[in-house]
Known about the structure:
This is Bifunctional enzyme IspD/IspF. It catalyses: 4-CDP-2-C-methyl-D-erythritol 2-phosphate = 2-C-methyl-D-erythritol 2,4-cyclic diphosphate + CMP; 2-C-methyl-D-erythritol 4-phosphate + CTP + H(+) = 4-CDP-2-C-methyl-D-erythritol + diphosphate. Residues 248-400 form the 2-C-methyl-D-erythritol 2,4-cyclodiphosphate synthase domain. In the N-terminal section; belongs to the IspD/TarI cytidylyltransferase family. IspD subfamily. It contains 12 helices and 19 strands. The strands form 5 sheets. Strands 1, 4, 5, 6, 7, 10, 11 and 12 form an 8-stranded mixed β-sheet that branches. The model has no long low-confidence stretch (mean pLDDT 91). The protein has helices spanning 39-48, 65-72, 90-101, 121-132, 177-189, 198-204, 224-237, 285-296, 303-306, 320-332, 355-366, 384-387, and strands spanning 8-14, 33-34, 37-38, 53-60, 81-85, 108-113, 137-143, 148-151, 157-161, 167-169, 173-176, 209-213, 246-260, 263-266, 269-272, 275-277, 335-345, 373-378, 391-402. The protein folds into 2 domains: 3-237, Spore Coat Polysaccharide Biosynthesis Protein SpsA, Chain A, CATH 3.90.550; 246-402, CATH 3.30.1330.50. The chain is elongated, with a radius of gyration of 25 Å. α3 (90-101) crosses α5 (177-189), α5 crosses α6 (198-204) and α8 (285-296) runs parallel beside α10. It is an alpha/beta fold.
Amino acid sequence: MDDRTMTIGIVIVAAGRGERAGSLEDGPKQYRRIGGRPVITHTLERFLTWSRSGPIVVVIHRDDEALFAEACGKLPGAERVITTFGGETRQRSVYEGLRALSGTDATHVMIHDAARPFVDRDVLDRVAQALDEGQEGVLPAIPVTDTLKRGGSDGLVHDTVPRAGLYAAQTPQSFHLSAIRIAHEKAAALRREDFTDDASIAEWAGLTVTLVEGSVDNIKLTVKRDIAMADEKLSQSTLPANFLPDVRTGNGYDVHQLEPGDGVTLCGVFIPHDQKLSGHSDADVALHALTDALLATCGAGDIGDHFPPSDMRWRGAPSKIFLDHAAKIVRERGGTIMNADISLIAEAPKIAPHRQKMRETLADILGISVDRCSVKATTNEKIGFIGRREGIAAIATATVVYRGETA
């Protein structure tokens, strides 16, 4: 097909809630910040600056109009963007995007996930070239390199799956606009909601889907750690040669009284014990101290300023909420969390059997690797209130790199 007769419309799917990427307090993953800007800003910019882009439809959630306007409203070319509301599933959201695009001059469509901000022009050009050559559907993909195992409900490996000819699908998945819209309409009419991507709908509808080379960088940000790694990647790649790193260290201290009970929660891990910690929340001294340490790196007060004990909302609340909040503040102010170190001071219970789980919990909450999380424990040699098993104390240190100044 002569590319002068073909107009490639874009549908960017951004209506999901992204529960796997962290707490609801953090907001949908497509609006989390990486490199100082929301994920969706990076994604939309890739298409706004690509020479072959025609009309662009972004499918958003009804609750996200203000978030989208703030994230993308000032991008050059943003006036070209059409927004429409998505449905309860990704499949329904794509269908709504296709309907909105059908009112434009687009003849073909690229359907892309908002949570893939690193798609590059080489991938877009390869997909477009395949459309130019008359392919009905085009799927960017990369060969599977890991050894694949098929397991059963018994938790055992049943066999090894040959990986020859296996590919990991990416987006943008691209089609003749009318053909993929008809396929979606047929699926909707039959109430088929079990398709995992648009290529699978196209295959089901009898369309031919051609593979083109994807990119290992074109990853989908799915969990909190993906977002943290993307932020670190962008932050490092944009540093000028004369950058002066702004490394800050914050300290935190907390202590809670022990009383008769059935266990204590430390670093987010419950440990059965003949005592419990007294406090307004779950009294996790370790996470309280680390929350203060993170807040200290950007002068954001302390845990009591953000979660006052007088507020009944926090009675019995898991302290993960507090640490999540502090980490979010750090990132919003341009910080990248590099390290978290906690020292627990207690006569009992024994911390060593739970240390690895504690480190893994910290890594999950903060979105950093386990090797950047340290948990240590010591006794008070039976001296003072800790020695008398009247309380447990925690000292925490956090290291954060903020965007520094140039020399």
